[in-house]
Amino acid sequence: MKFKINQDHFSNGLQQVLNVVATRSTMPILSNVLIEAADGHISLTTTNLDLGIRCRIKADIETPGGITLPVRKLATIVRELPQSEVFVETGDNNQAKITSGGSLFKIMGISTEEFPPLPTFENRHVFELEQAEIVNMLKSVSYGQSTDENRYILNGVYFNFADEKLTLVATDGRRLALTALETDITEDNEGSLILPAKTVAELERLLGKGEKVKVAFSDRQVAFEVAIGEDGDTGLVDQLYLVSKIVEGNYPNYRQVIPKETEHRVKIERELMLECVHRAALVTSDK
């Protein structure tokens, strides 16, 4: 494999896939990024077996091929290289040679054959939504997720596609956050899932780079195809692909804890409310 790529584009692509990799892993291959070069771009893929991500970066490909390299070490090296062209070349011994300007690095990798492929599954439910709307919905409820691992069913955000709307819910048993968005959902395409907290955080980070996001899920997995906007020179091509396991189990009936009628309702300016809460919080205790 041999290719030439813009340093800033390469660094940006590695940052997109870096968060998925666990700090410590019993399987060395899971600390690596799969690099595949072909058809005018390189593909970068990482996974921790529960969550996987792939992006594509434009590059000049001289010789197609692939290798897996330690992603954190590679990201650090590429980030510190001069802002010019980066040349990457691999041999038969799974060693990568990275050159840029007067800098030369050699990194040992692992064969692509050992890298676990991202899962494929039959999409039982498929929806296309606006990125801006989904990221705003996630941010408005994700704080309500539980961090108690003993209550794993609450360790995520509940997505419910039904009644011609998408409803997002998060609760830790003491507080509950809910938001809904009207959208086109046919009766035969209705469904629900619990998105793990780690995936929620990644999705919040990735969304906002373009206009649309496609959501496809089955009983055990969900995939997001995040479209890339044309604004800015990021080097990203087409879309980001995020695939995740879902939390197995039935989400609690949150509707029964929401009062059907309320005697009092108060409307107040948002910024004024925040200012008052911040002042009052100055004298509160963490205990």
Q: What report would you give on this structure?
A:
By secondary structure, the protein is α+β, with helices and mostly antiparallel strands. It folds into 2 domains: 2-114, DNA Polymerase III, subunit A, domain 2 (DNA Polymerase III, Chain A, domain 2), CATH 3.10.150; 125-257, DNA Polymerase III, Chain A, domain 2 (Roll), CATH 3.10.150. Helices cover 19% and strands 38% of the residues. It contains 5 helices and 17 strands. The chain has helices spanning 7-18, 71-80, 131-141, 197-206, 270-281; strands at residues 2-6, 32-38, 41-47, 51-58, 60-63, 65-70, 85-90, 95-100, 103-108, 125-130, 156-162, 165-171, 176-182, 191-196, 212-217, 221-227, 239-245. The chain has an 8-stranded antiparallel β-sheet. Strands 5-1-7-8-9 form a 5-stranded antiparallel β-sheet. A hairpin with a 2-residue loop joins strand 2 (32-38) and strand 3. Helix 1 packs antiparallel against helix 2. It is elongated, with a radius of gyration of 22 Å. 32% of the residues are buried. The model has no long low-confidence stretch (mean pLDDT 92).
Uncertain runs are none
Major sheet summary line: 8 strands, antiparallel
Output the CATH topology of the largest domain.
DNA Polymerase III, Chain A, domain 2
Please give the number of β-strands.
Answer: 17
- Report mean pLDDT, rounded to a whole number: 92
Number of separate domains: 2
Number of helical stretches of at least 4 residues: 5
Global geometry: elongated
- At the first level of CATH, the class of the largest domain is Alpha Beta
Cα gyration radius (Å):
22 Å
Q: What structural category do the secondary elements indicate?
A: alpha+beta
Name the CATH superfamily classification of the largest domain: DNA Polymerase III, subunit A, domain 2
- One letter per element, helices H and strands E, the order comes to EHEEEEEHEEEEHEEEEHEEEH
